[in-house]
Design a protein that fits this description.
Length: 222
């Protein structure tokens, strides 16, 4: 996988080094050379100086070959413009933007761009969305026994009922986000392409549920 990251602050650096550690290729864009220097000598990816929404800069960073693009600079407007350019002009499949103003998140979700609005959670969530690695848990009960996690589903789950997914994962669907709108589904609800499915599951079975979501239904062992 090849990932282009715009923004080389704390989140951008953390994301870049973690993706590279997983064996993926990374290109990082920032307007400040000193920010790029903080990636350190061990970083093997490409560093590009410039504005991340500039088409020439994006091209230099390798956006035409990118599997994913993450806009994680300190500016909301810069991030959303860059994300839209990556999605709409370069047809990058996986695009995500870091947004400080949570009130804007719903608008951007309706544009088909997933957003991250909290700094402590950002690196783990971005890693999960871009690579499918890690666990995208966002909430747990005070005892830590139950978690709510977003599943990145294999394409073959499309058309299957949520009851089949629940049976396979031993969880319950908490809610889905479809076309930017959240809803509480029924067991008869069928999964559609680009659905964001959030599952409540025992924490001890969380990783297994995530793994099941990544594989085709026919590959799930009874």
């Amino acid at each position: 996988m090849f990932v282009v990251i715009m923004g080389c602050g704390r989140v951008g650096r953390s994301l870049a080094t973690r993706i590279e550690a997983l064996g993926h290729n990374v290109s990082v864009i920032d307007v400040k050379s000193e920010a790029l220097a903080k990636l350190g000598n061990d970083f093997q990816g490409k560093r590009v100086l410039g504005q991340g929404f500039d088409r020439n800069v994006l091209t230099e960073a390798g956006i035409t070959e990118a599997d994913a693009f993450a806009a994680v600079s300190s500016g909301d407007n810069t991030n959303i413009i860059a994300a839209r350019v990556a999605r709409e002009e370069f047809n990058v499949e996986r695009v995500i933007a870091r947004i400080y103003d949570g009130r804007r998140a719903e608008i951007y979700e309706r544009l088909g761009i997933p957003t991250i609005a909290t700094v402590p959670w950002a690196a783990e969530r971005l890693l999960h969305v871009i690579t499918g690695e890690g666990v995208g848990s966002t909430l747990s009960d005070p005892s830590g026994q139950v978690s709510i996690v977003e599943l990145i589903l294999h394409v073959d789950w499309v058309g299957q009922s949520l009851s089949e997914l629940e049976k396979a994962t031993e969880g319950r669907c908490a809610f889905i986000v479809r076309a930017g709108r959240a809803a509480i589904p029924t067991s008869r609800t069928r999964i559609q392409a680009e659905d964001h499915v959030w599952l409540s599951v025992l924490s001890e079975k969380e990783q297994r549920a995530v793994e099941i979501g990544r594989i085709a239904p026919q590959e799930v062992e009874d």
